[in-house]
């Protein structure tokens, strides 16, 4: 298994260097504009690297993994559509339609769907029945786009997805479901090379890469796939509400952003600079500081979800806690300008004290 992890890392890392000149030649690069403040044309190849690393681990651990062909087909389609979107900007409605189609295949051919939401409303299980199929399609599109939308500053997508896969892996180990647990940890290892080059560690910014829509959609689909396997059916290792805590930051940020856009009469798919990471940078944090802080908060949320499982905290209490977290987030964002002014005031005082 350790050898498989090592080869997964090397496969993902080498693919990044191999794909750089190809991406630059075919125009698969991200160029600066009014929303994107990076310098130069950055290759959008993180998703290709993750796909290759994922496949390397899968084929090395063929006997143990036995991932259905449906999953491999789905991530290949998402990768291909993501690459085309990164290069040519495909309509968000077309992308959502393809994501819905793959979700329907997951339900129909894979028999993977939301059957219940656990005991979030009391001592009885909230069974969804046939409406669960529609909710599964909606949830799949939502999670895919939550991870796509949160990818706004260096390291953030890699950090948040690693937190999610790590928390899932820990809960699966606790339930002795080692196959899925090893896969979750292997996905973190496949993300690491991208994260290193994206943050300039240790090669500097010369080899910088971005994940691109190809990678963020692949990550989101894989997370919802594993979470559905882990929260539904008999003997599931975690409750559905725990899954929400594991991906709390991307989901809450997406819901809040879409609500603000709709309230202003804008398309929910129209990009802007109102995400949590943008507001933190505007408050005076560096992008690296914002990345570390948001990832730390996400780890705390995921950790709380794990504690809920370990100590058998009532699911309705966990649900109320999640709703409370959402309203705290919305309240803070609605008063972002006050928080920004407060943070800047503290930083000015700190600088004055340092100069004295």
From TrEMBL:
Q: In which pathway does it act?
A: Bacterial outer membrane biogenesis; LPS O-antigen biosynthesis
GO terms for CC?
Gram-negative-bacterium-type cell wall; plasma membrane
Q: Does the keyword Metal-binding apply?
A: yes
Q: Which Gene Ontology molecular-function terms are recorded?
A: glycosyltransferase activity; magnesium ion binding; manganese ion binding; UDP-N-acetylglucosamine-undecaprenyl-phosphate N-acetylglucosaminephosphotransferase activity
Looking at the record's lineage, which domain of life comes first? Bacteria
InterPro entries reported in the protein's UniProt record: ECA_WecA-rel, Glycosyl_transferase_4, PNAcMuramoyl-5peptid_Trfase_CS
Query: Where does the UniProt annotation place the signal sequence?
Result: none
Q: Which reaction is this enzyme known to catalyze? A: di-trans,octa-cis-undecaprenyl phosphate + UDP-N-acetyl-alpha-D-glucosamine = N-acetyl-alpha-D-glucosaminyl-di-trans,octa-cis-undecaprenyl diphosphate + UMP
Q: What UniProt keywords apply to this chain's record, in alphabetical order?
A: Cell inner membrane, Cell membrane, Glycosyltransferase, Lipopolysaccharide biosynthesis, Magnesium, Manganese, Membrane, Metal-binding, Transferase, Transmembrane, Transmembrane helix
Any one GO biological process: O antigen biosynthetic process
The record's principal subcellular location, in a coarse class, is membrane
Report the subcellular localization. Cell inner membrane; Cell membrane
Instruction: Please report the record's description of how this protein sits within the membrane.
Output: Multi-pass membrane protein
Residue ranges annotated as transmembrane are 41-60, 67-84, 124-144, 156-174, 180-197, 209-229, 241-259, 290-310, 316-337
- Which prosthetic group or cofactor does it need? Mg(2+); Mn(2+)
- Binding-site residues, Mg(2+): 148, 213
Which top-level enzyme class is recorded in the Swiss-Prot or TrEMBL entry? transferase
EC code? 2.7.8.33
What does the protein in this record do? Catalyzes the transfer of the GlcNAc-1-phosphate moiety from UDP-GlcNAc onto the carrier lipid undecaprenyl phosphate (C55-P), yielding GlcNAc-pyrophosphoryl-undecaprenyl (GlcNAc-PP-C55).
Checking HAMAP family in the record gives: WecA_Gammaproteo
Q: Which family does it belong to?
A: Belongs to the glycosyltransferase 4 family. WecA subfamily.
* The protein, known as: Undecaprenyl-phosphate alpha-N-acetylglucosaminyl 1-phosphate transferase
Q: What organism does this protein naturally occur in?
A: uncultured Avibacterium sp
């Amino acid at each position: 298994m350790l050898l498989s992890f090592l080869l997964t890392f090397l496969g993902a890392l080498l693919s990044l260097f191999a794909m750089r000149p190809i991406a630059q030649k075919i125009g698969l690069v991200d160029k600066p504009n009014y929303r994107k403040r990076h310098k130069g044309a950055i290759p959008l190849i993180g998703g290709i690297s993750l796909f290759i690393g994922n496949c390397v681990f899968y084929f090395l651990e063929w006997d143990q993994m036995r991932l259905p062909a449906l999953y491999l087909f789905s991530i290949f389609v998402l990768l291909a559509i993501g690459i085309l979107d990164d290069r040519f900007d495909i309509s968000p409605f077309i992308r959502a339609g393809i994501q819905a189609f793959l979700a329907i295949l997951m339900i129909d051919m894979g028999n993977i769907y939301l059957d219940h939401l656990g005991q979030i409303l009391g001592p009885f299980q909230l069974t969804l029945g046939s409406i669960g199929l529609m909710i599964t399609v909606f949830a799949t599109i939502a999670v895919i786009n939550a991870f796509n939308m949160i990818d706004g500053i260096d390291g953030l997508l890699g950090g948040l997805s690693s937190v999610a896969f790590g928390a899932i892996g820990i809960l699966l180990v606790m339930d002795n479901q080692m196959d899925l647990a090893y896969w979750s940890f292997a996905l973190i290892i496949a993300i690491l090379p991208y994260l290193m080059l994206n943050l300039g560690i240790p090669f500097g910014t010369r080899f910088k890469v971005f994940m691109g829509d190809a990678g963020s959609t692949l990550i989101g689909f894989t997370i919802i796939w594993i979470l559905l396997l882990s929260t539904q059916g008999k003997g599931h290792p975690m409750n559905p509400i725990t899954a929400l805590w594991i991906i709390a930051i991307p989901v809450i940020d997406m819901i809040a952003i879409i609500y603000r856009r709709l309230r202003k009469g804008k398309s929910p798919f129209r990009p802007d600079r109102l995400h949590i990471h943008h507001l933190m940078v505007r408050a005076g944090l560096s992008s690296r500081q914002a990345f570390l802080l948001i990832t730390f908060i996400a780890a705390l949320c995921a950790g709380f979800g794990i504690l809920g499982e370990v100590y058998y905290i009532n699911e309705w209490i966990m649900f109320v806690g999640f709703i409370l977290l959402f309203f705290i987030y919305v309240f803070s964002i609605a008063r972002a300008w006050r928080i920004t002014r407060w943070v800047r005031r503290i930083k000015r005082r700190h600088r004055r004290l340092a100069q004295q």
